[in-house]
Design goal:
two-stranded antiparallel sheet; globular; 5 helices
C-alpha cells in the first residue's frame, strides 16, 4: 500500500517491528507500562522516551500492545503493520488513527508530520544566527 506521507521517526531504542513509539512526543507518563510491562522499556532504567523493548509474540502480548496503544495519552504508540485482525481490533477501540495503514491513520501521520515540521522551523527561527543545514540534521 502506497503512503502519501513519510513515516514518523521511531524512538531509537524501539526494537524493529510493527508496534512502535513515535520519537519526540513521549511525555513519560508511563501509563502504557501498566498495560504491557513485558513489552515496554524497563522503568527501573533511565530513559528519555518510552519504547517497545520487545515485539509481542503471543495473542496475549498482542492484546497488551493494543491496550497500551489505547491508553497512550498523546498517541505516541502506533501500529505500523498490516495484519487485518489487529487493525480491526484497534479500530473497534477507536484507535484507527494510530494505525499506519488506515485512512484515518495516514491523516494522523500527515498532521503529525506538519506539526513536527512546523516545530523544527519555529526552533530554527528562534535560534539567532542559525544558517545552513546543520540544524536540519540535528533536529531531524
Amino acid at each position: 500500500m502506497s503512503m502519501s506521507v513519510s513515516l514518523p521517526q521511531r524512538v531509537p531504542e524501539n526494537v524493529p517491528g510493527d508496534f512502535y513509539v513515535v520519537g519526540g512526543i513521549c511525555l513519560q507518563c508511563c501509563i502504557v507500562h501498566k498495560c504491557a510491562p513485558g513489552l515496554m522499556n524497563d522503568l527501573k532504567q533511565p530513559f528519555e522516551e518510552c519504547f517497545f523493548r520487545r515485539q509481542p509474540q503471543t495473542p496475549g502480548e498482542i492484546e497488551q500492545a493494543i491496550a497500551a496503544i489505547e491508553v497512550s495519552e498523546v498517541s505516541a504508540l502506533r501500529y505500523g503493520g498490516n495484519d487485518p485482525g489487529i487493525i480491526s481490533r484497534l479500530k473497534a477501540r477507536e484507535c484507527g488513527r494510530q494505525c499506519d495503514q488506515t485512512e484515518e491513520g495516514r491523516a494522523a501521520l500527515r498532521e503529525m508530520e506538519a506539526i513536527l515540521k512546523k516545530g523544527r522551523e519555529e526552533v530554527a527561527e528562534k535560534l539567532p544566527g542559525v544558517r545552513g543545514e546543520w540544524w536540519r540534521r540535528l533536529l531531524g
